[in-house]
Write a structure and sequence with these properties.
14% strand, alpha/beta
Length: 160
């Protein structure tokens, strides 16, 4: 049903976390957007409001490092990511702090991968300023348009 040459993936918050997990394991996606996501649970430990939940599920990092490594795979195995990825986050995000997007962006940038990082000033986890909401949607369209191309239906409609 789907064109394997035009597969994109993306999400915000937990969707961004899942996007990072998927692109670290599967190279078939041609474009990704990861908003307010995380790829390095070890590096993010204690920076968000979920410390208790992480400890209940995974244990403390120093007591169960293997579990923490598994959930940190996107960052620790960034060399396996080939998907062009757009990272976005609010500067004041306390839920999934900006450091998480910055780390993933820097890892891909250091590897020479196609990546960008957009930081929305004075925004928290939910981007609310109308001009930023519009900017985010336009960036999604531009990113997927650049890496996935126009749909065949849109291309043929434009040529009429």
């Amino acid at each position: 049903v789907a064109d394997p040459e035009r597969l994109g993936i993306g999400g915000w918050s937990y969707g961004g976390i899942l996007t990072n997990q998927v692109i670290a394991r599967d190279r078939r996606f041609k474009a990704a957007t990861s908003g307010a996501g995380q790829g390095n649970a070890i590096g993010g430990y204690g920076t968000d409001m979920y410390t208790l939940e992480y400890e209940l599920e995974l244990g403390k990092p120093w007591a169960n490092l293997d579990a923490w490594r598994r959930v940190s795979r996107p960052f620790l195995r960034a060399d396996r990511i080939v998907t062009p990825t757009l990272f976005l986050c609010g500067q004041e995000d306390w839920n999934v702090p900006l450091i998480n997007s910055e780390q993933m962006y820097q890892a891909l940038k250091s590897l020479g991968r196609k990546t960008e990082l957009v930081i929305y000033p004075e925004e928290a986890h939910a981007i609310k300023r109308p001009s930023f909401v519009l900017d985010r949607m336009e960036r999604y369209l531009a990113w997927y348009g650049e890496h996935l191309g126009a749909s065949p239906a849109a291309a043929s409609a434009g040529s009429r």
